[in-house]
Write a structure and sequence with these properties.
477 residues; alpha/beta; TIM Barrel; 2 domains; globular
Length: 477
């Protein structure tokens, strides 16, 4: 069956002298085969527990409305995959069909992230989570491994502990040969003392204040030559816990999860300790990245170890303050001048431990230039084609110090927000048509940025693919 690019896609491709690399497409797994792998490798009992995951929506509906808070149950995705567009549904499930349609989409090379495998990053059942990771990654390698000159399936790496992450990295990358990995940058953990209440959870973001030291994971990524990319959502925690409305929970949730992970890694010092690594934060866009960059700099400028003394209560001139009060205080305040010390404590407590006053020490960051370097060279932001905010990444007049962030083209094909996968490239091109991006910026968006993210960690990432020799890293080797 022939698949021909539309006039719109054809016209765009004729103007481009570079590849189009999809930094975040998706495949849809055939769960009966995944179940077979679980049963084969971990036993029928775990396969039956996997059945409950597959049937999760039906089980969730059985929880009474008034019990949903107690169970930590919120409205999750429903009717989230193509149906009327049967061709697209089949495309996401069948490797040969996906491969046959790439030219129709105008895409040269695509990273294909999990769909059902996303559960691996969030499931609280330790035994089943690891068995699912092993089975899904076997599925990606065996079922989707035949077209890796243009399609790269992405491994699902559980991150509840560093040990399980390293074990699955060694399996998926070291044994199965997958070269792209998906992690969760946010891990739900039970609140101590409330382990029996499923709704009582806090979010560990793997960097600052984590329950575990994840440096061994980042070290293993360096050794294996893989880039940590984070593809987890914020549904079901914080303000996204509606019991009835998925859209309410979904809006902004990937940005919230990406921002939490990025902020935690930044404050925890991972980018400074591992300059060999790049980190990708997917599906949340880039606007939150600009906000975090500017906000972090604003805090750093005023609260770094050299400036924090500006707010140290010891530096308050008590006599001068008393004179100001005597001259300017209203009568009701002047009458209570004997309690002046008590009135100065809140938010200015002299008893704070000054040894902990440098809250940027863990980050290893000493100046604004290092912050800019991290955001421009090590952090990458997955941006869906139809997001008009993508243009902000390339506007150096907006971000402090003229920074330009690394937005990467992400189709999100196979999910509900892409009703027709043939329209993804034209949607991305609208930024050029509307005058928000020039063609050099468009090249960075759909090719150079994602290539830089992957080649920084693994210079040979694209060897043997159709884009080999056509990426930024190729000219430097």
């Amino acid at each position: 069956m022939p698949f021909t690019a539309s006039r719109a896609v054809d016209a765009i491709r004729k103007r481009l002298d570079h590849p189009v690399i999809d930094g975040d497409g998706h495949l849809i797994e055939f769960t009966p085969t995944v179940r077979d792998f679980i049963a084969e490798e971990a036993g029928e009992e775990l396969a039956k527990r996997f059945d409950m995951v597959v049937e999760g929506a039906a089980l969730q509906r059985q929880i009474p409305y008034e019990k949903k808070r107690e169970f930590g149950s919120s409205r999750t995705a429903w009717w989230a995959l193509p149906t009327r567009n049967t061709l697209d549904r089949a495309t996401a499930m069948l490797p040969d069909l996906m491969y046959a349609r790439l030219d129709e989409l105008g895409v040269d090379y695509a990273l294909l992230y999990p769909t059902y495998g996303l559960v691996v990053t969030a499931l609280g059942d330790d035994e089943l989570r690891c068995a699912m990771a092993r089975a899904f990654n076997r599925y990606y390698a065996e079922v989707w491994g035949g077209h890796r000159d243009r399609l790269e399936p992405v491994a699902a790496i559980p991150m509840f502990t560093p040990e399980e992450a390293i074990a699955e990295l060694d399996h998926a990358v070291g044994e199965r040969g997958l070269k792209a990995v998906m992690m969760a940058g946010v891990v739900p953990r039970p609140v101590p003392g409330a382990e029996g209440t499923r709704g009582a959870q806090w979010i560990d973001c793997l960097g600052h204040d984590s329950e575990y030291d994840y440096d061994p994971v980042w070290k293993r990524c360096v050794e294996l030559g893989v880039t940590p990319t984070f593809h987890a959502g914020g549904q079901g925690w914080g303000t996204r816990m509606s019991r009835t409305n998925y859209v309410f929970n979904h809006i902004g949730n990937f940005a919230a999860a990406g921002e939490a992970a990025c902020r935690s890694l930044l404050m925890g010092g991972a980018p400074m300790r591992f300059p060999e690594l790049t980190f990708g934060f997917l599906e949340g866009g880039v606007a939150w990245g600009l906000n975090l960059y500017a906000d972090f700099l604003g805090h750093f400028e005023k609260r770094n170890r050299h400036q924090i003394g500006h707010y140290d209560p010891e530096n308050l001139d008590r006599d001068a303050l008393a004179r100001y009060f005597e001259e300017y205080a209203p009568a009701a305040v002047r009458e209570r001048m004997g309690a002046l010390d008590q009135g100065l404590v809140m938010l200015s407590d002299p008893g704070e431990d000054r040894a902990t006053s440098d809250e940027f020490a863990e980050s290893g960051i000493e100046d604004a230039a290092e912050v800019k370097r991290i955001f421009e060279k090590q952090f990458f932001f997955g941006c869906e084609a139809d997001d008009p905010m993508n243009a902000l990444a390339f506007d150096s007049k907006v971000a402090p110090h003229g920074a330009r962030l690394r937005a990467i083209f992400a189709s999100d094909i196979s999910h509900w927000d892409v009703p027709d996968i043939r329209g993804v490239l034209p949607e991305a091109w609208e930024l050029v048509e509307d005058g928000h991006l020039g063609e050099p910026e468009f090249r960075a968006f759909v090719c150079d940025n994602v290539a830089n993210m992957l080649e920084h960690t693994n210079p040979a990432f694209f060897d043997g693919t159709v884009v080999a020799g056509r990426t930024p890293g190729a000219s430097s080797r």
